[in-house]
Structure formats: structure tokens, C-alpha cells
Amino acid sequence: MSTSSIIDGLIAITSTKQVLTKNSELESYGQDWTRFYSPKPLAIVLPSSVEEVVEVVKLANKKGFSLVPSGGRTGLSGGANAINGEVVVSLDKLNKIIEFNAIDRSITCQAGVITEVIQDLAEEKGLFYPVDFASAGSSQIGGNIATNAGGIKVIKYGMTRDWVLGLKVVTGNGELLEFNKGLIKNATGYDLRHLFIGSEGTLGIIVEATLKLTRRPVNLNVMVLGVTEFNSMMHILNKFQSEIDLTAFEFFSALALTKVISHHDLQAPFETQVPYYALLEFEMVNDDIETKIMETFEFCMEQGWILDGILSQSEQQAKSLWALRERISETITIDTPYKNDISVTLSKVPEFLKQVDRLIEIEYPDFEIVWFGHIGDGNLHLNILKPATLSKTEFVKKCEQVNQKVFEIVRHHQGSISAEHGIGLLKKSYLSVTRTETEINLMKKMRLVFDNNMILNPGKLWD
User: Fold this and answer.
1) Tens digits of per-residue pLDDT, 217-251?
2) Helix (H) or strand (E) segment spanning residue 343
3) Which run of H or of E encompasses 293?
4) How far is CA 105 from CA 37, 108, 164, 219, 388, in A?
5) In 3-state terms, what secondary structure has residue 93?
6) Full DSSP string of 123-175
7) What are the tens digits of pLDDT across the range 350-369?
8) Quick one: which of 262, 259, 258 has its CA closest to 273?
9) Number of H helices, E strands in the chain
10) 448: number of CA atoms within 13 Å, CB side?
11) Which pLDDT does position 34 carry in this prediction?
12) Whether the Cβ atoms of residue 163 and residue 212 lie closer than 8 Å to each other
């Protein structure tokens, strides 16, 4: 099928302004934050209605071309990359809030709504949408759902999956389906909504969602602790959790902190030099909480688990302390990091990290390694920074070789090769580390049910 025929067909469904073909547009829309693949889309189409999405999918089936669904393109596994002449379906124009329901504590919106818009609207209504991460200002709800995004508050609030009450999707066969319709309880067979959450655009294109809201947290405070060794991190987590309800428990290495404060107008939390930092967030609802916090802090000091710490004294200081953790990803982007987003159960975290640390010291003696992550839910981000002397190709090849060994440690500890970033292009070679052959075959069969001609996001999850 000729390129002109496909583009003419897309224009007939939408309009000339909604089909982009300039090289700069193809490059911008054809990739996510993964920078290891060259974008080569055929065209970009920006539907402005659900009906247009349906017609675009039907056209793709009729003419035999592939589609790559695209949201805010903030992914880190290449899930939104178009590298083989696919048409990118951008959800940018599907950006309307459809309904806020105070009684149901829910928001129904189109898939292209920015995450932060949902958070702000919930706050304006006296409620809270708790799924949060550094890219909330540019990521879109559809993409969050397609990757089952996690973020910094999973320890208390869970993943995106826990906040999706209903979904409207266009399958790869061009069918418009609506799942669950906002119900809290619905015991009527298979809940297909959850099949599409985390499916990375391989079963259908998410076009609308109904999201659950909750009570807004009160008087959030932040504490940053200087940790003597990583093994102490889990003792600290366990002790604090036994005394108070945490809304976040994050960690980052000394090198991560150094990188952030060297590129931003931020200061180290205290002068004491430590190898690791823990960041805790909690609601200071009364004086008893503050008393428990200080008593627990003193206990951890006595055990030798921490050397120093700071408790926020204002909302602004809390934001500054959070910035030390949240700005790590954007800061190290200039160093072209190769990211591993891995997870194990909490009890296995110290031994797991020790084994991975030992491996990377051997395999990457001259590379800078930045650790950070959502330690409260067992999610570690291992970032290998590219040396200036290596080309991108050489660097990726080296990382892929070491990946095999890192993921064997993941397999040994029965962990996941992708805690929250998804599989996409970057990790499909390693899917069998976390999923059995039987599971993968079942997923392939399910994919065919919803996308007979395999037109949606080809090459993602598996070849």
C-alpha cells in the first residue's frame, strides 16, 4: 500500500491539520524518552474524537499498516517508539474532562488528559488522585494506564490499576468496548478492564477512563535520613512503618544527590557524608505523630542505622527535599543512562542489591552507577551512565551483555525485570526472566483475540 494512499485515508477521516508528516514532527512524535532507537514513523495522526480513533483502526486493518498509540511519550522502555514505518496515533487532542462526580468520588476523562490536570482538579474539589511521579506534568492518563504506572506513593496508594474504575477502549479489530462503567463492585465474570491496564497498547487504544479519587492527605511532612549502609534501609522502613503510616519511602545514592545538586539550585539535606539517603513522607495529623517520628529517629540513630537526618519545617522545605529525589531522572538524562527498573519482594531487597552491586563493580569498573527508587515497594532503579568516550552503540551493547547477568540475579530472587516502566522494545528479550513460556504463549493468544491482524504496537513485548 502506497504512503500517499495511507495519508489520504487518514486525512479523509480527520483533516489535513491532524495528519503530520514533516521530519521534525515524525521525530518528535515517533519516540518516547528512550533514546536508543531511531524514530521512523510513516505519519502522525491526531484524532479529535473516539469515532475518529475507531475509523483510523479500521483503515489500518483494511490497508494493512501498523499503529503505535502515543500519549505523553514519557515512557522509558521504548513502548511508544515507531521505528518501522508505523502510523503514530497521538491522543493529544482527546484531552477533555468529561465528568467530575462528587458522590462517586470519580473523574471521567479522555485518554490525552495530562496526569497533573487530574491531580489539580481533584485538589480543587477537595479530593486527591494519588498516582504521582516526576513526569506528571507531561504524561497522559492513557499512557499511565497502558503501562500501569507506579511512582512515589505506591507504598500507601498502590499502582494506577488500583484507581481505574472504568475504561473505554478501541481494540485492534476496531471494536469500541466499555469496561466496568465506574462500578466499585461488579462480579459478572472476567474483568477485561484489568487485561488492558498494563498492556502497553498491544490490545487496544485507551480512549476514556473513569478514575477513583480519595481523601486529600493532611499536613504532609518529609524527612530525609542519612543511611550508613543499604542493609540498614529495610530496618529503618520496618521500624517507621510499625509506628506510623507512610505515604512514601524512597531512597537514592550519594552519587545521585551529587548529580542533582550540581545541576539545580538545591542544597544537600545536611553536611554529614553518607552512602545512601532515605526519604520518608507522612501525614503530621497531630502532635503524637511528631513524637513518634522523633522517638523512632532516635531509636534508629542508637542502632547505628542512620547518621543524620532532617525533618521539613514548612511546605516549601518539604518540596525542596522532595526535589532531591524527584529531579534525579531529568538530571542524569544528559548522561544517556541505561535504565533497569527492577523489583523483588521487600525481604529480598538487601541481598538482591548486594549481589547486583558486586556484579556491576566487576562489569562496570569505569562507569558511573546511580541507584535510586521506590524502596518502600521493592522497586529499584539501576542507572548506568554512558561514558563520554563510548559511542551510544558501544554503550548499549555493553549494557545488554551485563543485563543477562543482572537479570539472572532477578530470576534467582523471583523478581521482575520491569516494576513500572513496562517491556516495550528495550526489555522484550528478557521477558522470559519474569514470565514462563506458558504465560507468554497465553498472552500471545489473548493479543490475537483483540487484534486479529497484529496492527497495534508491533514488536513490543515480544517479536
Assistant:
1) 999 999 999 999 998 999 999 999 999 999 999 99
2) strand 338-343
3) helix 287-302
4) 41, 10, 12, 21, 50
5) coil
6) HHTTEE-----TTTTT-BHHHHHHTT---TTHHHH--GGGGEEEEEEEETTS-
7) 899 899 989 988 998 889 99
8) 258
9) 16, 18
10) 5
11) 87
12) yes
